[in-house]
Amino acid sequence: QVQLQESGPGLVKPSQTLSLTCTVSGGSISSGDYYWSWIRQPPGKGLEWIGYIYYTGSTYYNPSLKSRVTISVDTSKNQFSLKLSSVTAADTAVYYCARREGGSYYEGVWGKGTTVTVSS
Amino acid sequence: EIVLTQSPGTLSLSPGERATLSCRASQSLSSSYLAWYEQKPGQAPRPLIYGASSRATGIPDRFSGSGSGTDFTLTISRLEPEDFAVYYCQQYGSSLTFGGGTKVEIK
Q1: A112 to chain B: which residues are within 8 Å by CB?
Q2: Å between A75 CA and nearest CA of chain B
Q3: Pairing of β B63-76 and β B19-29
């Protein structure tokens, strides 16, 4: 079955760019049935959608983060990535990647999540 | 943007009891765009319900979803020990947002 795994630095300095990659195994990221999402959760708080991407490169972002977010896809590596610029302590969170079911409108498969701390 | 308000914030119940969780949207949305997730400490969310009432793969039938328009409900008919967790609703009608969550704790 499909599995997702987040990877990237666990510590990022304020004002720098957070970069994470999600590697998809057990299935093709180029399947037209799915979108590929990033979602985050600050410590002790709820879930916040960041955005998602289709394998063609079409992207959809949270309006509140849109000016700082870039999501990209590399179909040759079966990966998709997140870049969040100009980070502050408020961007400290567990970051999850997930597979969004295209016809059913929900995140059906999630990675385990990776903790990113913004601190100098 | 549609805001989802979940209530109550915390639900204290005993195993075997029925849990009823509410999710209210700030404006009407299609039932197709309402999902529910369960999250346990240190774990990723697990999808439970999509399309307001369809169970995700592998979800036991004690979990059920209902509702339409602005009012949606997740019901757990008989709480099992493993059901004590935080539950989130999610909408896709306007952008994509989550509710603030309801914690179901052991009484």
Answers
A1: 43-44
A2: 25
A3: antiparallel
Token pair 């913004």 is found at A118
* Each residue's pLDDT expressed in tens, for chain A with a length of 120 residues: 999 999 999 999 999 999 999 999 999 999 889 999 999 999 999 999 999 999 999 999 999 999 999 999 999 999 999 999 999 999 999 999 999 998 889 999 999 999 999 999
Percent of chain B that is helix, strand, coil (3-state, to 5) = 5, 55, 40
Cα distance between the two ends of chain B: 36
CB-CB neighbours of A40 under 10 Å: 23
Please give the single-letter amino acid code of residue A91.
D
Distance CA A108, CA A101 (A): 6
